[in-house]
């Protein structure tokens, strides 16, 4: 069996797991997951009814709509962290701010559960940075210039003297145009004004 044909015999679950692992590594996966998990209790608890025997305990408050909006925004920010990781810093800061706002608005931040999850998810998103590319993924280096195109640099590297004028003006910055004094003569006004 040749090394090229090993991939054909793999189980589809192994291939799917490896693909998911690659997808998860390219984005702040855990930040998005924690942020979405934080949004769920914040938007659920104000509309939930708890049954204790024959007694129904309703936890709804006057800020139920605010809780729903905060929870939906946190879930949306979590999905944004997954699928648009370029805006991860904005999404992380917004998740932290929404988590802090959920304390007074949404039943103490979803009974502190949603607050903590959203806070951790936002912090993970702000601190996440994309990994470095591996040696297999790096682009091939450009071909070196032939010796005829840059004789001065190559001859200097070989120890040969540089040709006449090879470094002419290399260390001198470009001179700017002289300062016009006509504006001072016209009283500092522009010609159009």
What does this structure look like?
With 193 residues, the chain is mainly alpha-helical. The chain has helices at residues 12-25, 29-44, 64-83, 88-105, 107-111, 113-127, 151-158, 182-185; strands at 49-52, 55-58. Helix 2 (29-44) runs antiparallel to helix 3. The longest helix is centred in the middle third of the chain and has 20 residues, at 64-83. The relative contact order is 0.12.
As laid out across the biggest beta sheet, the strand order is: 1-2
Radius of gyration: 31 Å
Mean pLDDT: 77
Low-confidence stretches: none
SSE topology string: HHEEHHHHHH
Share in β-strands: under 5%
Which structural class do you get from the secondary structure elements? mainly alpha
* Sheet of most strands: 2 strands, antiparallel
Tell me roughly what share of residues is in helical segments: 40-55%
Query: What distance lies between the first and last C-alpha atoms, to the nearest angstrom?
Result: 84 Å
Tally of separate helices: 8
Number of strands: 2
Shape, per Cα inertia axes: elongated
């Amino acid at each position: 069996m040749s090394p090229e044909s090993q991939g054909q015999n793999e189980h589809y679950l192994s291939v799917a797991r490896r693909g998911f692992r690659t997808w998860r590594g390219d984005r702040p996966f855990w930040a998005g997951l924690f942020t979405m998990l934080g949004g769920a209790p914040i938007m659920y608890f104000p509309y939930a009814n708890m049954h204790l025997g024959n007694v129904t305990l309703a936890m709804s408050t006057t800020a139920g709509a605010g809780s729903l909006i905060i929870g939906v925004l946190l879930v949306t920010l979590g999905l944004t962290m997954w699928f648009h990781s370029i805006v991860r810093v904005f999404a992380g800061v917004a998740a932290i701010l929404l988590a802090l706002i959920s304390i007074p608005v949404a039943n103490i931040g979803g009974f502190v559960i949603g607050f903590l999850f959203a806070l951790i998810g936002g912090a993970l998103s702000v601190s996440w940075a994309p990994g470095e590319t591996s040696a297999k993924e790096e682009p091939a280096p450009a071909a070196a210039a032939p010796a005829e195109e840059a004789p001065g640099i190559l001859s200097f590297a070989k120890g040969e003297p540089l040709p006449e004028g090879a470094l002419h003006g290399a260390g001198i910055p470009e001179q700017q145009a002289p300062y016009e004094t006509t504006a001072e003569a016209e009283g500092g006004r522009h010609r159009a004004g």
